[in-house]
Amino acid sequence: MKFRTPELNGRRRRLARALTIYDLRAIAQRRTPAAAFDYTDGAAEMELSLARARQAFEDVEFHPSILRDVSTVDTAATIFGGRSAMPFGIAPTGFTRLMHTEGETAGASAAGAAGIPFALSTLGTTSIEDVQAANPHGRNWFQLYVMRQREISYSLVERAAAAGFDTLMLTVDTPVAGARLRDKRNGFSIPPQLTLRTVLNAIPRPWWWWDFLTTPKLEFASLSSTGGTVGQLLDAAMDPTISYDDLATIRNMWPGTLVIKGVQAVDDAKKLVDAGVDGIVLSNHGGRQLDRAPVPFHLLPDVVREVGSHTDIAVDTGIMNGADIVACIALGAKFSLIGRAYLYGLMAGGRPGVDRAIEILSEQVVRTMKLLGVASLDELTPRHATQLQRLAPRRPDGDQNL
Ligand SMILES: Cc1cc2nc3c(=O)[nH]c(=O)nc-3n(C[C@H](O)[C@H](O)[C@H](O)COP(=O)(O)O)c2cc1C
């Protein structure tokens, strides 16, 4: 018998004890001011879209095959014209340095080290060029909001191309901002404003404040030269008039892979393929826009059947476990994106926290594949993952025979 050498580094000890993304979430909540945590953790209105998406994954029933050699499994995916070591990548998120000042730099460098793609948001808090510097050899993707002032968006597209980003992800589920009620109740603002409540909430979280006050100012890095207050920028970032004409313009401007994020209907997926996009992300923005939107995981079988042989389909919203990712691949997705799962890691411990989140999900992917008796992603089929019936989506035309 041997004594285990105690881990003296508190951060490493804390992260090693986290066995699930929910464990990282619990650490994140203890260490991050309520307004920043709630901005990340919360969703729109009654938060039903997010709860249902997570429930759908919990309601997956796996069907393993037995007596197959799974001593090694190949988790590599081909997605949007390139490779990823795992069937997931990091979703674009705004305000990321608010969660932890290492922000996108931690996300991009951790993604690079793990061989998975990193997506930078238009509302990111690290510039396009700095993300490229943090992940110089890996895949960087740029998420675009078509802003009211089109020239601002177009100049970002040019910068992303110049910096070698290989995929442009145009988000289309934000004609207006969703109602994030937690933010309203918290009086959330950028930069955080000092009220009596903020001060009381800060007392048990001195590290976050120290970090926040001693590192470079929090700003929308790619947009910093455009001026305007945060409110004006946000308003400018969402344009209710965007249409297929904008898509055509961007298609002509962007030399790389063009992906549309926020697709939520089979018909739209078909139209997008006809419009010449290279891929789609089935997503309801992590439940942060339209509440009671379709569960993206539920859309998979129909969308895969209609357009799966013409375009790459990725999916997000609600992924908290590598087994969720395996279920997505089994139902025909090529790839998945993780938003909060990564941000919980970031809040729990900066770059090592993101590494831990990726490690937890990767181990879960590998273990689930082995237990299912599949040695590569190609071997996963809809036979491996069915849904226990709880909330079955009804057909809009009234035909209930699914
Ligand atoms: C804090 C936060 C900020 C986000 N910001 C953006 C954004 O700027 N652009 C975008 O396209 N999606 C954004 N999203 C949505 C994510 O890209 C992704 O669709 C969503 O997080 C997936 O759900 P999940 O968090 O359950 O994994 C954001 C999500 C979160 C949680």
Kindly describe this structure.
- This protein has 402 residues and is an alpha/beta fold.
- It has one domain (10-386): TIM Barrel (Alpha-Beta Barrel), CATH 3.20.20.70.
- Helices cover 44% and strands 12% of the residues.
- The chain is built from 17 helices and twelve strands.
- The protein has helices at residues 10-17, 21-31, 34-41, 48-58, 96-99, 103-114, 128-134, 150-162, 181-186, 196-202, 206-214, 230-237, 244-253, 266-274, 296-307, 322-330, 340-372; strands spanning 60-62, 77-79, 82-84, 88-90, 118-120, 140-144, 167-171, 257-263, 279-282, 312-315, 335-338, 385-387.
- The chain has an eight-stranded parallel beta sheet. A two-stranded antiparallel ribbon has the order 1-12.
- A hairpin with a 2-residue loop joins strand 2 and strand 3 (82-84).
- It starts with 9 loop residues before the first helix and ends in a 15-residue tail after the last strand.
- The mean pLDDT is 93.
- Bound molecules: flavin mononucleotide.
- Flavin mononucleotide (FMN) binds at residues 39-40, 91-94, 121, 123, 143, 171, 261, 283, 285-286, 288, 316-319, 337-341, 343.
